[in-house]
Amino acid sequence: MSSPRTPTHPHQPVVAGLLLAAGGGRRLGGRPKALLEHRGRPLVEHAVRTLREGGCGPVHVVLGAAADRVREEADLTGCAVRDNPAWEEGMGSSLRVGLASLGPADAVLVLLVDQPGIGAEAVARVRAAYRSRSSLAAAAYGGRRGHPVLFGADRWDGIAAGAEGDQGARAYLRAHADAITLVECGDVAQAYDIDTPEDLRHLR
């Protein structure tokens, strides 16, 4: 009598979430963006929930401005939280810190804390564009590339090497434009940033 066979399951890719939440809100009078209130809670909590509900995990968060206050006032339970002491240098330094913190994963989906108009549905769409560890995908709005973006693990070193100033991964994405899968999200998300006092009207 033959022994029962153990069912095999295809490898489910691990797509980590990476939230860049280090900004100091210079044009908002120095109010850290992570702690801006939206629907009664800090923006950073909304963004973490968006990543989780969109199917990403584990979730990594990079803090910078007022990092201690953010830890005290926001519920980041279950997140891997890293500080970027060089956050004032711009998004590139936070992206490098975040990529270095990831550990084993097949890909990472990067979200910015100051874009609350991007919800779980857009995250799930971009996450679904994963095909391999060399995947490169981004949300599009009316055909124009935006956030979130997905980076297969084989691309992390190249992205980190070019992440300088406020450019983040922009230079890398420009250089590899032909490899990017654009995922239209304009019907389910709005890609505005919370940068100026006028932008605060988007928060409730």
Report on this model:
It is a single chain. With 204 residues, the protein is α/β, with parallel strands linked by helices. 24% of the residues lie in helices and 22% in strands. The protein has six helices and nine strands; from the N terminus they run βββαβαβαβαββααβ. The chain has helices at 43-53, 67-73, 91-100, 120-127, 156-162, 170-175, and strands spanning 15-21, 37-38, 41-42, 59-63, 80-83, 107-112, 136-141, 144-152, 181-184. A seven-stranded mixed sheet has the order 5-4-1-6-8-7-9, with helices on both faces. Helix 2 links the parallel strand 4 (59-63) and strand 5 (80-83). Helix 1 crosses helix 4 (120-127) and helix 3 (91-100) runs antiparallel to helix 5. It is globular. The termini are far apart. Mean pLDDT is 92; it is low at 1-9. It comes from Streptomyces kurssanovii. This is Nucleotidyltransferase family protein. It holds the Pfam family NTP_transf_3.
Largest sheet, described in full?
7 strands, mixed
Q: What's the alpha carbon Rg, rounded to whole Å?
A: 17 Å
List the strand order in the largest sheet.
5-4-1-6-8-7-9
Poorly predicted regions are 1-9
Number of helices: 6
Q: Specify the helix fraction band.
A: 10-25%
Would you count the extended β strands for me? 9
Overall geometric form? globular
Mean pLDDT: 92
Give the N-to-C terminal Cα separation: 66 Å
What proportion strand?
15-25%
Class by alpha and beta content: alpha/beta
Sequence of secondary-structure elements: EEEHEHEHEHEEHHE
InterPro entries: MobA-like_NTP_Trfase (IPR025877), Nucleotide-diphossugar_trans (IPR029044)
Protein name: Nucleotidyltransferase family protein
